[in-house]
């Protein structure tokens, strides 16, 4: 009797394609989240105040995709946690699979939706400016952005979204190992916002958010994402196949 051998790569590819189709709700929620972010951004993401001079008064507001990107990062975090739950793990049993192939297909799925989320964030930012151009009676001034700067924006946004996706996957994996983590993480998060512990999240934001060099930031983000996914996959392999 001949046995059909299915390679790991083939299994991961099939699971990855299946998850793109099965998790269409996640993409729908992305559109909703970004639409909500646009709504919150209509008043201006940043206001520089106003003033008057020689009988003229002015008020300056800046319209950017910053808030949309933040909402997208939160979406990536929650989506990554969601795909680690039992209900989503049961989807893998449609195939001949193991925990390694399941985790690798999850990683590929998160990379893909993070790239999509980053691209849609920047497009949504342009949509916001178009909406304000139509609605505002006052002049709306824009800054010319070169193609290379757009490319840098896409790469940076993708890495930020993927970073939150990898963190969410790590958190979700730990929660599946032991449900106590579901209570520990919120406590740690709230505790980190209370002085003097507040310096820790501030240092993290400083480390990732204020890096001026794209190359250095890419190295930082890529290394962090790789570690989070690698550790998560190793933990994932310890889970019962159907627990």
From TrEMBL:
Keywords: Membrane, Transmembrane, Transmembrane helix. It comes from the Bacteria. The chain crosses the membrane at residues 22-42, 62-83, 104-128, 140-168, 180-202, 214-236. This is Uncharacterized protein. It comes from Ammoniphilus oxalaticus.
């Amino acid at each position: 009797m001949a046995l059909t051998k299915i390679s790991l790569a083939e299994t991961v590819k099939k699971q990855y394609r299946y998850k793109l189709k099965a998790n269409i709700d996640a993409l729908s929620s992305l559109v909703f989240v970004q639409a909500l972010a646009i709504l919150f951004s209509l008043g201006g993401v940043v206001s520089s105040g106003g003033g008057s001079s020689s009988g003229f008064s002015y008020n300056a507001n800046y319209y950017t995709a910053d808030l949309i990107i933040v909402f997208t990062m939160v979406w990536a975090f929650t989506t990554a946690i969601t795909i680690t739950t039992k209900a989503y793990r049961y989807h893998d049993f449609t195939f001949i699979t193991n925990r390694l192939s399941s985790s690798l297909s999850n990683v590929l799925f998160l990379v893909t939706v993070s790239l999509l989320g980053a691209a849609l964030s920047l497009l949504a930012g342009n949509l916001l400016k178009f909406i304000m151009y139509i609605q505002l009676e006052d002049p709306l001034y824009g800054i010319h952005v070169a193609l290379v700067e757009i490319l840098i924006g896409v790469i940076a946004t993708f890495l930020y979204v993927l970073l939150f996706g990898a963190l969410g996957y790590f958190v979700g994996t730990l929660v599946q190992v032991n449900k106590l983590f579901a209570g520990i993480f919120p406590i740690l998060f709230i505790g980190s916002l209370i002085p003097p512990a507040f310096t820790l999240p501030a240092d993290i934001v400083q480390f990732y958010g204020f890096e001026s060099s794209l190359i250095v930031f890419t190295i930082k983000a890529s290394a962090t994402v790789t570690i989070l996914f690698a550790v998560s996959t190793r933990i994932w392999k310890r889970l019962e196949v159907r627990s």
